[in-house]
Amino acid sequence: MLVSLTVGKVDAGVTVLLTQDKRLIEFPSILLPPNISSGSIVDIAVSRNRASEQAAKDSFAALQNRIYETFGVEPPTTPVLRCRNATQTSVVLEWDPIQLATADLASLSLYRNGQKAGNIPRPLQMHSTKISGLAVDTEYTFHLVLRTSAGTFSSEKLVVRTHKMTDLSGVTITTGILSGAARERLVAAVERIGAKLVADPGAVRIDTTHFVTTEGRGVAWEKAVELNIPVVRPEWVEACEKNGRILGVTKYYLDAVRPTGPNDNEPVVPPPQQQQQQQQPPTPNQNKELPQSPSDAPSSSTTPPAGAGAASSSHTAAEPSSAAATSPAEAHDDEPETRDDQKVWLGDQAGHEQKVALRTKQDASRAAEDGNDGDDGAEDDEEEDEDDDSGRGSHANGNGNGAAADSSLNKTSTPGDGNSFQDVDL
């Protein structure tokens, strides 16, 4: 198609062209022939390029096919759940890395027995998890649910049963610092009980159930403590083998007191001295106080007669000095008798104790009665014979003092408990 146009105004970038019906068309100046000025007439031929149009269409369709085949054909993969290890109270689950293709991840959740147990943190980096606090010898069902922008994908259900107390196949041990002999014994014991030993010493994994070492130091020990993995001594494995079941780890910690027996169920045997003390029957109270007789009342303590008289002052003045001189000796002489009585009273049987106690009581009461009779006689003599000579008064005083001395001797021979006023020298 050929079109004739008149040049109206020529500018640096755009030229104004006029049609025959006086319409204005802006046309790029660079596409016009050179030496064009206002009033010039130019012919412009316009035609459709079908070959180029078809080529462009084919190129665009090919691009769309490549995009669809690359990002729209492969959906996110469904997670596959597996059981890595199981013990009496825990289960370790693992799955393959998640392939999302072009979809965006929303969440990855774990379900236990049909109920949501929780979301997996960092699902693109974590491919395993550990579930603790399970019941012994109980069956559980687990499955994963993957939610993405391309849809929701659920894994197959996995049935896991926890082990019995006698099943030690789930025990996975990581070793720490051990001597050569201790390591050999540990390896042999682990093989006998059917447990698993991590091939790489010091490698603490998610399925590690116990960390066995004799020294609390090292990078592996720090990691085990950080992950709350029990750190025990090698004796724990030997104790489990002897008992034929898994045991608690409280008595086998590094800082725990070592058990006295080969296993924690063995009773502690007391020392021989404690056994003898337990076998001896309880003895009755040998220091039991006897009831106090009326004759042992404070009246038994003799007091000098009040009415001695002034006439006998010369005779009575000499008697206190002699009494003071003889009283310590008499007290010392009476002490062995008292001690002998106490020994007899403590060493003999119950029947003999009562006899000795009654005998000493009777002696004391008789001595007290004699002293009281002497005192009464002295008082009567003093009242009747006030004007008598000093000899009769001194004779009366002598009788009274003799009776008092006899009562004091009999009193000291009375056994006492060491805590009453009867043992005090007045």
UniProtKB/TrEMBL annotation:
Domain (BRCT) ranges: 163-254
Region described as Disordered: 257-426
Biased segments, Low complexity type: 293-329, 393-410
Composition skew (Acidic residues), residue ranges: 370-389
Gene Ontology biological-process annotations: conjugation with cellular fusion; Golgi to plasma membrane transport
Chain intervals with Basic and acidic residues compositional bias: 350-369
One MF term in the entry's GO annotations: protein dimerization activity
PROSITE patterns attached to this UniProt entry: BRCT (PS50172), FN3 (PS50853)
Composition-biased stretches (Polar residues): 411-426
Ranges for domain Fibronectin type-III: 75-169
GO cellular component terms attached to this protein's record: exomer complex; trans-Golgi network
InterPro entries: BRCT_dom, BRCT_dom_sf, Chs5_N, CHS_Export/Cell_Fusion_Reg, Fn3_2, FN3_dom, FN3_sf, Ig-like_fold
CDD domains linked to this entry: Chs5_N, FN3
Pfam families: CHS5_N, fn3_2, PTCB-BRCT
Listed name of the protein: Chitin biosynthesis protein
UniProt organism field: Sporothrix schenckii (strain ATCC 58251 / de Perez 2211183)
